[in-house]
């Protein structure tokens, strides 16, 4: 991220604090409004093609002791973040929580990590600046990329130029916490294959799928970190690469696809920054369990509940998903992506993926 | 791993199958004995300085239908592994489980993943060959390294020479699944600092701790993967680097230290391959919670139980650990490594680590 961006993030934060000042001056009780972050308050934005927060708001106001304390914490946090940006440093959410113990005003100290996490999210929403631009690092690290991509990463120790096949070991290129420090130099990939499990990621790399099909294999590592979603979106937007998502065939994995494609309810304010609405789901589809006669496990009660809750989730209200989820509820079965190995170790790269990518119009 | 090693692993496996053949020929009921894998059957081996299995054994014998089925599965698995080595391929434990569905004899198919996992462990123990040398990949990926180390990794796509500071991004060098494919070319590091959490790993990298103190920062990422423990041991044994382990100050984190230093009960047969008995614990020590007045949380019931169980664990029966664990039970408190941020973001690199490393005789 450039010095200009850092400066801008800092100004946005200071503007926030200035609003409280203005409210005081006008004789108003200081307050801050943020969108309500629940499933009922996310809606589809036709312009950006992602789900964003609706109109419902909740207000933090100094008209109660509790509200006043929240605003006090916000002001202390803004001061810390502005200083951090000034000094070009960064910190984790957890460090912020502990650091608050050193603040002079005890009322401003956080009583739990949830409280400081939520406040930082509120500040993201109200200021329109992302956590990464506040230089707040996640605890979770991003995952890896393997494929024909040459990039330049701006590190604190200078620039690094890395080719994500030729300059890395079998583990691939480790995505940094803030992928906006990356510039794409050259890319011979035709599409992105984002893969849930490490076992499948390694299978694809061993079978040379990235080389044979000019694919960028992005390891999601379960529920993907923000860094992983961000770089996927940038690869799509800036290089025009189609994004395909390959997960297990169960409701928890559909949520992984959902977080890549539509963003999450908790961070719908970041959908335009993190979500790739054009991302397509490869599988494992419930239909694949039948078509390829895959080894499966019975759905548990919590699987059934999760599927039913997805039918109610606006992000999954498409003909495709309704059909697949209802089929799965009928079947009463789920399958993992590695169950394709029951047809042999090369079935996934020789047959399954080429057939699916062809059907999806990617190949 | 070299072609010779692959050939040797293959022969060890075939020897195992040959034993059953010999037993048949001698008119014996085929059987296989493996050490009992419980806490009561691990003991300290003075030669290698690690904990290994004791003399208790359990026998899988074909004198019952259940036992015969176990041996049948073992033979099918041996055949699969021998073929895999022949073709220089690899697979995950999960793939093996699913692949068994394609075996002609239904009795040989695994009924659960636990069953196939346990069988592969039995084969490791009986053959003396590690899972990595069978070319079985873990699901869990290894973590990352940052520091003054230049290495050569033998990948399926040829050799890669990588410097773990100069040729990697801020994410560091991703440890491959089998670190025995790595050759160390050159190392300017004075010691290894193995770190539990991503947040702390990033703090150390941001503060340039690896550069200032010539440290190799190995990210453990919670309970470390086998690959992470293996490369740590190799760095210690081959380059003579002292290993220090830096975790949260709670019983679960002491187990992370224990798995680096002493190996785990479940894989005591691999201690000589994975464990670094000379590894030292930096902290967070219960004594640090008092000395540095760290923010803490009260011990939960399960924390107390875990601490008490560690007092019974032969791996923790040293004066140092007994004193620390009893102190913690008295205090009734635990602290995370990032709680050092309550003294400022640089406290860990300017004060805490230098003081501890000095006291431990590493600096």
UniProtKB/TrEMBL annotation, chains A, B:
Every Spo11/DNA topoisomerase VI subunit A N-terminal domain range: 69-135
Catalytic reaction equation(s): ATP-dependent breakage, passage and rejoining of double-stranded DNA
Gene name, Swiss-Prot/TrEMBL: top6A
GO molecular function, one term: DNA topoisomerase type II (double strand cut, ATP-hydrolyzing) activity
Record keyword Nucleotide-binding present: yes
CC cofactor: Mg(2+)
Official protein name in the record: Type 2 DNA topoisomerase 6 subunit A
Domain Type II DNA topoisomerase VI subunit A all-beta: 139-188
InterPro entries with a match to the protein in the record: Spo11/TopoVI_A, Spo11/TopoVI_A_N, Spo11/TopoVI_A_sf, Topo_VI_alpha, TopoVI_A, TOPRIM_Topo6A/Spo11, WH-like_DNA-bd_sf
Residues annotated as the enzyme's active site: 98
């Amino acid at each position: 991220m450039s010095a200009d961006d850092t400066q801008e993030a800092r100004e946005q934060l200071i503007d926030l604090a200035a609003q409280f000042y203005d409210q005081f001056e006008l004789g108003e009780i200081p307050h801050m409004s943020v969108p309500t972050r629940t499933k009922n308050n996310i809606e589809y934005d036709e312009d950006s093609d992602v789900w964003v927060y609706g109109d419902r708001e909740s207000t933090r106001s100094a008209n109660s002791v509790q509200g006043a304390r929240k605003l006090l914490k916000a002001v202390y946090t803004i001061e810390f973040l502005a200083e951090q940006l000034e000094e070009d440093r960064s910190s984790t959410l957890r460090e912020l929580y502990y650091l608050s113990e050193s603040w002079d005003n005890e009322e401003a100290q956080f009583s739990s990590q949830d409280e400081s996490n939520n406040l930082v999210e509120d500040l993201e929403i109200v200021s329109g600046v992302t956590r990464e631009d506040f230089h707040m690092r996640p605890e979770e690290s991003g995952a890896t990329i393997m494929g024909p991509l040459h990039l330049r990463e701006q590190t604190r120790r200078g620039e690094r130029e890395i080719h994500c096949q030729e300059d890395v070991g079998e583990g691939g290129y480790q995505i940094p916490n803030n992928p906006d420090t990356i510039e794409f130099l050259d890319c011979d990939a035709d599409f992105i294959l984002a893969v849930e499990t490490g076992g499948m990621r390694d299978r694809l790399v061993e079978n040379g799928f990235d080389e044979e099909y000019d694919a960028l294999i992005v390891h999601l590592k379960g529920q993907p970190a923000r860094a992983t979603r961000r770089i996927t979106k940038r690869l799509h937007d800036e290089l025009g690469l189609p994004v395909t998502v390959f997960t297990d065939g169960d409701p928890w994995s559909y949520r992984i696809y959902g977080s890549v494609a539509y963003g999450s309810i908790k961070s719908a304010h970041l959908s335009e920054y993190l979500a790739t609405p054009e991302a397509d789901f490869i599988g494992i589809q419930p239909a694949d369990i039948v078509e390829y006669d895959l080894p499966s496990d019975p759905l548990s009660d919590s699987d059934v509940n999760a599927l039913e809750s997805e039918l109610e989730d606006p992000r999954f209200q498409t003909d495709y998903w309704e059909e697949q989820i209802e089929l799965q509820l009928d079947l009463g079965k789920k399958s993992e992506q590695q169950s394709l190995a029951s047809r042999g170790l090369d079935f996934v790269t020789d047959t399954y993926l080429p057939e699916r990518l062809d059907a999806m119009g990617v190949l």
